[in-house]
Amino acid sequence: MCQSETMHLAVDCSFIHTDHLWAQPGSWVGYHYYGPDFYEDVARTAQRGCFDMIFFGDAAETPENFGGNYDVPLRQGIRWPKHDMMPMIPYMAKAAPNLGFGITMSTTYHHPFHVARLYSSLDHVTGGRIAWNAVTSAYKNEAANWGYDVMMPAAERYERAREHMAVVLALWNSVEADAIVMDREKGIFADPSKVHLINHEGKHFRVRGPLPVLPSPQGRPVVIQAGQSQDGMNLASLHADMQFVSRRTLKSIGEHRAVLDDLTVKHGRSPRDLGVFWSVRVQVGDTREDAIRKERRFLDHLPDNAGLIELSFLYGLDFAKFDGKMRLGDLLEVVQQQQVHWGTFQELVKTEGAETTLEEVGRRYIAERSNYVVGSVKDVADHLEAVHEAGGRNGGIILAKSFDAPGMLRDFVEMVVPELQRRGLMRKRYRETTLRGNLNS
User: Fold this and answer.
1) How many structural domains comprise the chain?
2) If both were cysteines, with which of 176, 235, 396, 404 could 27 make a disulfide (CB 3.0 to 4.6 Å apart)?
3) CA distance readout (Å), 116 to 110, 119, 132
């Protein structure tokens, strides 16, 4: 997807009030969670920094893993509420006319025809700036909300996802780019020979086609996939344009990229056909000491059990019930049995060490769950450049959620972006009008 070596930028705005961030000093001041003003301002700020995309993850659930009910997430504002962000996109697209938007929809619970039609329609609303984040939905309560007594096993979710994504792509390709004629003199709107049935009959879906939507302004919406398990990486290598990846070290970033390169070639694609946004949490200050002060303020406002709560929600277990002296290696089997985010837990054990105790990890998991950097502008730019190099200069950085919103993004745009531009790592202006065009430039 990223045919140049430019460092592309995205920012994760998934439930950006949650994970204790609403309580940070300066966060959400003057805004309401349910109104568009905040998101319009975030979009303007991201565009000012020449970002490619704002990203919204989704999971249609109210988590109950920690403590066995939803008291903690509601009381502490953790992963709740979760509005559907789709209605916000037209507001943001108008406020920031060059910025792209990544929106999540599940291959497990949504029909491929609905996904193809909705995203293609939204792509026209934004002038070609939409990306579909295709997820396999690994949360028990989300399964219950969609009417399932038990969550679908991981192998079945990925089997379904492979067919789902293939159908969506076929629907997007069912109307050729030059199908629209609009010859008023001859009375011909479209050339029927360039609109095609897909007649898909598979194990999970039956779809006749064609898609009743005009061809996408960017060819087709950009496809994102974020799985870090072997199944997830294989799915991304088969169908995706971009991956969102949370690897904790430069070594594991390089290893992940190498696996993707091998898999894309195996599927008859070039490694450049699949870019990666590497997740990095950034805490930047005028000096390293200033950044450390900001980081300490961020950490001081986190509850003592914040890390264990996050681990519980992510892996479908109540970590409050485990002995704090348990080693990470002792939890491998029980976490694997949950069939959720297995790749990220493997990464945690690999980078922390199997002997590390749950108590040790729990104290710092919120701050260290992804790759992160705390430091001066130079420190941050050096680190992001190293991440970009380790990832083969094939994609860029997605800023992970941290401290106050929208101050974190504003600081990055005003402080770090000029340094990245000075180094020639990223563009100083948008070169194309579509998301796909900008990711390739």
Assistant:
1) 1
2) 404
3) 10, 6, 9
